[in-house]
Amino acid sequence: MTVSERSYAPLSADHYARLAEIVSIAHADLQEIRPDLSGQLAACLAQGAAGNVLDHSVGVKDLDLWRSKSAPPEGRRAPARRRKTYDFGPSSLGRPRVDDALRDA
């Protein structure tokens, strides 16, 4: 697998399918620690990955996904931001120079 700083290749249907799997895994992970946050409203690509969808001259270093949840029950606060890293796995986009210890799934 190629180690690269950025990929300029367009995302394919296979990439989107893997991203959907990762969103499902992330949702299940959050459900384990916060079952009251059950409603997932949306997930989308963000930052460079979103720009690459519109313009392939925008290089992608990583695939950032932002997820929205429905409001928690009254009296509970949802975390403002939750950062978790998931490994995309083998990809035609290459692999960035990231410490493997940061990869979870």
Key terms:
2 strands, alpha+beta, 12% strand, 105 residues, 28% helix, elongated, two-stranded antiparallel sheet
Structure description:
There is one protein chain. This protein has 105 residues and is of the alpha+beta class. It has one domain. The protein contains two helices and two strands. A two-stranded antiparallel sheet has the order 1-2. The protein is elongated. The mean pLDDT is 76.
Reconstruct the topology from this structure:
Blueprint: H1 13-33, E1 40-46, H2 47-54, E2 64-69
Antiparallel strand pairs: 1-2
Q: Give a quick account of the main beta sheet: strands, pairing sense, barrel closure.
A: 2 strands, antiparallel
Share in helix: 25-40%
- Low-confidence spans: none
What is the tally of helical segments?
2
Shape: elongated
Query: Tally of extended strands?
Result: 2
Measured by DSSP, the beta-strand proportion falls in: 5-15%
Structural class: alpha+beta
Q: What strand order characterises the main sheet?
A: 1-2
What is the H/E string?
HEHE
Please tell me the total number of domains. 1
Q: Could you report the average pLDDT, rounded to the nearest whole number?
A: 76
- Report how far the terminal alpha carbons are from each other: 18 Å
Give the radius of gyration: 15 Å
